[in-house]
Amino acid sequence: MNIILNGEKYEISKDNITVEELLNELSVKWNIDLSGAVVLVNDEIVKKNNWKTEKIAEDYHLEVLSFVSGG
Q1: Which of 7, 12, 42, 50 has the fewest CB atoms within 10 Å, i.e. is most exposed?
Q2: pLDDT single digits (tens) 44-70
Q3: How many whole angstroms separate alpha carbon 54 and alpha carbon 29?
Q4: How far is the C-alpha of 32 from the C-alpha of 23, rounded, in Å?
Q5: Domains parsed from the chain with CATH numbers
């Protein structure tokens, strides 16, 4: 299944994936903690308590924003 992730085409290995499952996959791939991320699906913010139930479908547009402290 293909989506647009942070403005880039991205292929997901399985269909019927939730936001939480995708974030877990990305956390491992990017080696970053995304537990405090902000997630937008088709320009709508998905609240963290909905990550387990919010499904991602073909051609959805997602933005995953993670804030990093430092200077």
Answers
A1: 7
A2: 999 999 999 999 999 999 999 988 766
A3: 21
A4: 10
A5: 1-64 (3.10.20.30)
